[in-house]
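User: My instructor asked us to take a sequence, write out its structure as tokens, and then describe one feature of it. I'm not sure where to start. Here is the sequence I was given:
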Amino acid sequence: TMSVSQMLFYSKKNVDPETMLLPYLRRKLRLTGTKYGCGGGGCGACTVMISRYNPITKRIRHHPANACLIPICSLYGAAVTTVEGIGSTHTRIHPVQERIAKCHGTQCGFCTPGMVMSIYTLLRNHPEPTLDQLTDALGGNLCRCTGYRPIIDACKTFCKTSGCCQSKENGICCLDQGINGLPEFEEGSEVKEEFLPLDPTQELIFPPELMIMAEKQPQRTRMFGSERMAWFSPVTLKELLELKFKYPQAPVVMGNTSVGPEVKFKGVFHPVVISPDRIEELSVVIHASNGLTLGAGLSLAQVKDILADVVQKLPEEKTQMYRALLKHLRTLAGSQIRNMASLGGHIISRHPDSDLNPLLAVGNCTLNLLSKEGKRQIPLDEQFLSKCPNADLKPQEILISVNIPYSRKWEFVSAFRQAQRQENALPIVNSGMRVFFGEEDGIIRELSISYGGIGPTTICAKDSCQKVIGRHWNEEMLDTACRLVLNEVSLPGSAPGGKVEFKRTLIISFLFKFYLEVSQILKKTNSVHYPSLADKYASALEDLHSRHHCSTLKYQKIGPKQHPEDPVGHPIMHLSGVKHATGEAIYCDDMPPVDQELFLTFVTSSRAHAKILSIDLSEALSMPGVVDIMTAEHLSDVNSFCFFTETETFLATDKVFCVGHLVCAVLADSEVQAKRAAKRVKIVYQDLEPLILTIEVMSSMLMPGYYLFFLNTSLTFMYFPVTGEIHMGGQEHFYMETQSMLVVPKGEDQEIDVYVSTQFPKYIQDIVASTLKLPANKVMCHVRRVGGAFGGKAFKTGTIAAVTAFAANKHGRAVRCVLERGEDMLITGGRHPYLGKYKAGFMNDGRILALDMEHYSNAGTSLEESLFVIEMGLLKMDNAYKFPNLRCQGWACRTNLPSNTAFRGFGFPQAGLITESCIVEVAAKCGLSPEKVRMINMYKEIDQTPYKQEINAKNLAQCWRECMAMSSYSERKVVVEKFNMENYWKKKGLSMVPLKFPVGLGSRAAGQAAALVHIYLDGSVLVTHGGIEMGQGVHTKMIQVASRELRMPMSNVHLRGTSTETVPNANVSGGSVVADLNGLAVKNACQTLLKRLEPIISKNPKGTWKDWAQTAFNESISLSAVGYFRGYESDMNWEKGEGHPFEYFVYGAACSEVEIDCLTGDHKNIRTDIVMDVGCSINPALDIGQIEGAFIQGMGLYTIEELNYSPQGVLHTRGPDQYKIPAICDMPTQLHISLLPPSQNSNTLYSSKGLGESGVFLGCSVFFAIHDAVSAARRERGLRGPLRLNSPLTPEKIRMACEDKFTKMIPRDEPGSYVPWNVPI
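Assistant: Let's start with the prediction itself. The structure tokens for your sequence are:
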């Protein structure tokens, strides 16, 4: 009963109730298009479409869902459509798949099937969606590569409104200005005609057999069972009550979005689960005279639609509550979760940060309960929410429906929330507030306030509300209420979740917002009675989030002399783009299982610095399916590898140095068995001193440091009016595909194949060969493509591969190892947190004469690449500025955290931010704008860097000028200042930052590259090279190179992947130079071949490649060539502090505008303009993809991505639920990217420049725009003195920097009087 396109679920008695749809699809049915990204419904990589037929309404409902949370038992009678089902390259591709590929909406492609399914499901329900519906549909899908702009462009092609941004800024539509939302192609041709049309009649029909089954089948309870648990699906209310009577402790599961994550991440186990299926009474919607009754089984998405409908039809005064609920339903989780989660489940779970419960609690809602004993009604109030036994459901009761009363005249309800990210993020604090006046006299009759996110349950400020009843709605009442509420809703300094002072501030800031909202309405109805709101305060009421995205891209023009067949310089689609979109692109874990394959999982340390006293494996070894458990003893003399200068051990021997340190590896027949056994390994620790987590504590234990001097005078005599420091947090790579590998022993000559998701196959080959005591020629490492890497898939991957290979070799069986998202985040380390200290001497006009800098990086437990990161940070710290006198020193600090590693930008995003912070402070001291100080210190045309390398900065000045013009900086600066004068609680900020990013690897050897090109006798060509395809499109560029050099169409050239078998000794893929170096090697190989074939071609110029290849073969001319590039000249003498480490510089500038809410710390990215100097782009579509993807990643780094560690060194942020990377809502509403016209550079590949990393730093334009807005707020509040803001600039830091009467009112804890939940790292 399975067809690949859709899967129909009939009752199979032998289904294991613990099996989720995702592993069932991937392992059992081998449908690997649906990806594993996080396992908790937080990233959208596993989105599928679920369709169900309702025999009563005769309607089919399609909705998106996260396959990782859906138990297959709950899918009886449903049709599941996966990405394979909607289109493939073998049959035909679906318009969604085609457009996302053609609009360059895929880079690594790992998130693409989920994106496609979210859009597809939306189109099944709304064939011509609005832009709001689109951004809403994609709110639950994360992408780490693209920055979302091209994905939205692809979606816009389905909208009625064409490419218009719908923002009508200054009353002019963007289309009227000739700025189209789609890329401007050189030919000026419209892009729309090239797409397949969307034809709703051609979609898959709902399987008729499921309809017949739903209509005809007698309704009876279904039961599925395994040895461990039983799953009941009752289909009538009577059966449901019987089951709940029989199993009172069993949870009632609808969408599994609450029970699922608890089972998965918290180890909760339920032997019996009751999952009601299509019980009508649970999905009732009753419009009564006093309010609305909603069935507990309705999904949150259905509730949202019902409320939206009611709000349209009823008068406003009746729908206050429904409007407030709608506001929260829009941002609650993502579309998939909203479609799965039920209203009843949300209420009953009573999560402390539930968004709906605080609102329902203030709205006098009641719950209708039912059990075998009969009906009962209880209020949804504080007692119920804090699970008081006498106010809760009895074990055998079921929640049937919820009554939500209409609001009355003179009754007002508001909802507030603040989260780390605007959408799809749990709130830090949320609140529901209701006031009832009874009449227009403005005397409070009823007041009800409740908060979520503050304590273990939703908290109602009952006493405070009671005390202000009977008072007038005025400032005096507000002041009293704030003090009362702060007193009543108290929060200890050590509260879980941290951010304690921020939370206290939000409690009263929300109350103030509510006061303003109600005052404004009262004023409208009776202006005599109420004092008018100060105009400056009105802005506090508007929401920040305008939705409609508009973007423009300016590609480079192609020269008139270029041959029409030559693809170089054209915006050619990523070669795998269509396969990404159809799910046919194969990643490491999509490879089919090998016979007798085993699965390996790690047991990691739970202590940050401890001695291992004992490891007890006996219980774990006795579990079913467990084959072996390996510790350091088993690896004995091969448990380490010399890396740069330091020897790293794989598995801990007698001590552990961080939480997440690998201790042992469990080998079992399946992933489930390995994970279960890993939990049973018993390790006894003895904590050791000292436990060092932060750089500040650490200054004592420095690893060797680096110095960079560039002095004209001695710094000792200088006076430094500005001294300061800035702290910068780390960043998690969050590549969508976690660390994955499959190691296959070949069975003869000790040969072994390693299929792995890595940036550095040679290193994997070396480390595996060393561990197995084999020569490297027996170990082959193969990489087809990588689902995102960003620097995080080189060295830690090697350690994991070494242990996995050891296991495979020991047992002579294939071993697969795929980390779960939480393990990956715990084990692998990320970007180095930095502490930067600076002193600056300068003139009144802002010219900096002398700068003294110190960089300290938090290296983690081992050296790894930390010194190299410090080195690059020092060499690049000058960014775009000439400092006549400079001293800069850098140290890597050893701490008890997982070792930090390479990350896109490699030290520059940290070093650059420290320099820019210093510039902003100098500007403040001089009373100038930061942009003026930036301009006066910028490199002039021909100049010298601190390490005496010649530089021509002409293009830097051009980028700066163009960005100024393109962004209308001066005009907008005036508008921003005017806005800030008129608004007290909202502020705008504008900032422009230049960029000089040096490209080079520091040594010639590190830049060598090789390629191998074969021409076959039919004239087709196979190219291989040493670079890894990880989303940046290097393979696409290589085929463009081969196509140009061999003068043949791209379709004639093929590329299979990267392997140590074809190109040996390749360097790591990173450092922005992968296409440069490998491209020069491919070019070299092609030219060698062409030179050999030149005589043949000139004799038969009209011939085909097939003719020429055959002739060459007949004349014994080799049709295969190795290409080689030695690397760019590169050297650096650290003793003298001079050298020529870099080949060229990428220049750019970015201007960003933000708006902040001073009461909540929220910020909105309004607009960003980026100008980049890219030399001559080989593929402008891919290059712009790199620029904007890096920019959004940098914006995340500097604003919302925050890692939290406990004082014991335990990572709290282990997945997308706690760690927020930018989502669609974080995109600047307007994004404009322009490339400078082509400029020549003799040494590089066709004068191109590598753009992989430089854009990350431009994200700090958003950081400084927020800084600008906060400064404006502080000036207005009379706060002088330097403003020091650390990165990331989260809502918490923004709010607490905008000091006002509310931040002064909150209680503060004495440091040392409590143990904080987290320590700043």
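For the description part of your assignment, you could build on this observation: The chain is about 30% helix and 20% strand. Try explaining in your own words what that tells you about the chain.
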